[in-house]
Amino acid sequence: MNILISGGSGFLGSAFSQELLMRYQQMGKELQITWLTRDSNQAHPSDITMMTYDELASSDAYFDVILNLAGAGIADARWSDDRKEQLLASRMKLTKDILAFVARSHVKPKLLVSGSAIGWYGNQGDKPLTESSGFQTDFAHQLCDDWEQLALQATEFGVPVTLVRTGVVIHPTGGMLSKLLTPFKMGVGGQLGNGQQIMSWISRDDWVSAVIFIIEQQLDDSTFQVNENTLHPANNNDMKIYNLTAPNPVTNHTFTKTLGAWLHRPTFFTLPAFLLKLIFGEMSTLLIDGQKVLPKALLDGGFEFKHQTLKEALEQQAVK
After folding, report:
1. Three-state SS across the chain?
2. Is the confidence at residue 31, as pLDDT, over 90?
3. How much of the chain, in percent, has pLDDT values that exceed 90?
4. Which of 5, 20, 31, 291 fits a disulfide with 67 by CB distance 3.0 to 4.6 angstroms?
5. Are 97 and 52 in contact (CB under 8 A)?
6. CA 229 to chain centre
């Protein structure tokens, strides 16, 4: 197996790489993971190969799977007009580079797994949402949809595409949880707004296992066998969508109380909605608006979650 990953050194890509390397080593199978990078001098594990985007532009390498995760963090800065442009450009530019590589490759990858987020569904309150649900238009939806539609162009070159719409990923070394640990440990953590907004989450361990499950399932699916001498798959079943969320989303109030109990800290404080809007501007919608996104495709496919509940996800974390 030969896998190319954009965003490989990030919070999700690094954990995915480590787990997959361990599994292949235990099975005695060969695996080559290549991280796409803009910096040829970037530090990396010794068992990872590095390739710059400039090198990709002229490479004749073959990859069984491409995992496309690169993009600026959507919650890392206030959504000014410039920041919105950066969020979109960081996803589109790198995905276009990957598409250009795919277009000129003689032997096409068997699968492109491209990142997205549950923000695609927009603000729909506590309405249950699955992969077949519609959307409400807002900035998060448009950002995700533009990224998805671009990635889907790989099907024009005979490469099946799977879109993974990720929820809030739970792990203490990154993502939202890492930002909340300090205030919660100091006893000043609390719910956001009225606390009734739904948070669709997934543990990082389950996110990694789910992506591995999806790749293995897709490569075993005969509909995803692409003839290297043709430009199109054998049929039109060349796009799939998976919600990467746990089966039991929680309200922000429940999340707050569960995190406080895990840390043995009080959670008396509340940040009112108007203050969140003042501090974060339009980005406050990520904190105030809820989404009840369910992993129907994963469950229908037989995937088994290690962490079914938020309490389980927190209690089994190695870092506290």
Report:
1. CEEEEECCCCCCHHHHHHHHHHHHHHHCCCCEEEEEECCCCCCCCCCEEEEEHHHHCCCCCCCCEEEECCCCCCCCCCCCHHHHHHHHHHHHHHHHHHHHHHHHCCCCCCEEEEEEEHHHHCCCEEEEECCCCCCCCCHHHHHHHHHHHHHHHHHHHCCCEEEEEECEEECCCCHHHHHHHHHHHCCCCEEECCCCCEECEEEHHHHHHHHHHHHHHHHHCHHHCCCCCCCCCCCCCCEEEEEECCCCCEEHHHHHHHHHHHHCCCCCEEECHHHHHHHHHHHHHHHHCCEEECCHHHHHCCCCCCCCCHHHHHHCCCCC
2. yes
3. 70
4. 5
5. no
6. 32
Q: Would you say residue 208 has pLDDT above 50?
A: yes
Q: Determine phi and psi for 117, rounding to 5 degrees.
A: -150, 160
Longest alpha-carbon distance in the chain: 63
Least-confidence region, from 144-158, 162-176, 229-243: 229-243
Q: Tell me, what's the pLDDT at 237?
A: 54
pTM: 0.91
State how far the Cα of 118 lies from the Cα of 50, in Å rounded to an integer: 30
Q: Which of 43-47, 111-115, 168-172 has the least mean pLDDT?
A: 43-47
Q: Return the amino acid letter for 70.
A: A
Q: Copy the structure tokens of residue 308.
A: 């079914």
